[in-house]
Amino acid sequence: MPPTLPLQTCLRASRPAATLPNIMSRRALSTTAPAMYKQPRVPDSSIPIPSATGPCPEIPAYPYGPRPFYHQSNTGLYGAARIRFGNNVSERNEIKTRRKWRPNVQHKRVWSASLGVFVRTRLTTRVLRTIDKAGGLDEYLLGHKPQRVKDLGPWGWRLRWRIMQTPALRERFAREREALGLPPKVDEVEVLEAAALLPGGSVAGDALMAETDRMLQDDMVFELHNEETGPTQEGEKSRT
């Protein structure tokens, strides 16, 4: 019969419950955003640089939608880069081993002339070379060709919207419209403010609504017509 070994008591079990370390307190979850998305403040502007992942209801939706493959490219300037798959083939026995090629993604601060600050973003080296050829980040984002808009992705689309709100680019677009012989673009906010100053009420449609209610109470006949053709056939029949 083999000799029995002395039993060793578990040190952790022998400790009182009050002295056990609180493991959950050491692994507290953090809710702060990644450091790369802590964008600098734009001087002399109250509009911040939009987040790459947060909701931005004021920005129009990206026409091509989020990318279904390689979701990481939705939060950076990746162009058309994706993860490629292939095989490693040995020279001796021609044994194939599956492998993947990831794009060369870097964390960079790219200068924006219209914003006057460095924009933090992820981007591939191919996109960085394209930015240098285009003449800067602003010129790259303002590319009007369909392929360029596809290469921007959701994050590039948000940056494009942000730089278009700067006074420098607004003046540039106004000069381009004037050179093409187009009338100046009227802001929707200015139209609403002008409509509020019309006589007859704070809203331009108050007088029309009041006239419509009066005609409904008097059981009057509405005549449907337009400026070019005059009264319609239905309006003529109603008068007869």
From TrEMBL:
Pfam families hit by this protein: Ribosomal_L28
Lineage: superkingdom: Eukaryota
Biological source species: Trichocladium antarcticum
Similarity field: Belongs to the bacterial ribosomal protein bL28 family.
Main function: Component of the mitochondrial ribosome (mitoribosome), a dedicated translation machinery responsible for the synthesis of mitochondrial genome-encoded proteins, including at least some of the essential transmembrane subunits of the mitochondrial respiratory chain. The mitoribosomes are attached to the mitochondrial inner membrane and translation products are cotranslationally integrated into the membrane.
Keywords: Ribonucleoprotein, Ribosomal protein
HAMAP family reported for this sequence: Ribosomal_bL28
GO cellular component: mitochondrial large ribosomal subunit
Positions in coiled-coil regions: none
MF terms (GO), sorted A to Z: structural constituent of ribosome
Name the UniProt record assigns to this protein: Large ribosomal subunit protein bL28m
SUPFAM superfamilies: L28p-like
